[in-house]
Amino acid sequence: MWTTKFTEEDLYVFNEAKELGFDGIEIDMGSPDKLPIEEIKQKMDETKLECTFSLGLEKNKA
């Protein structure tokens, strides 16, 4: 799944990733203030999956 705004509606990917045999997932931090952090932590605990966050920075933006 690809999305620029990870929300509570996207938490299902943890279960799907686990079922597919993945060790973890990567979440884009496009809107870090809107990430459901507590829910992500809960899903990590439930599924025992690792989670990394990525952020794309625009050139010449300070």
UniProtKB/TrEMBL annotation:
<protein>
    <recommendedName>
        <fullName>Xylose isomerase-like TIM barrel domain-containing protein</fullName>
    </recommendedName>
</protein>
<dbReference type="InterPro" id="IPR036237">
    <property type="entry name" value="Xyl_isomerase-like_sf"/>
</dbReference>
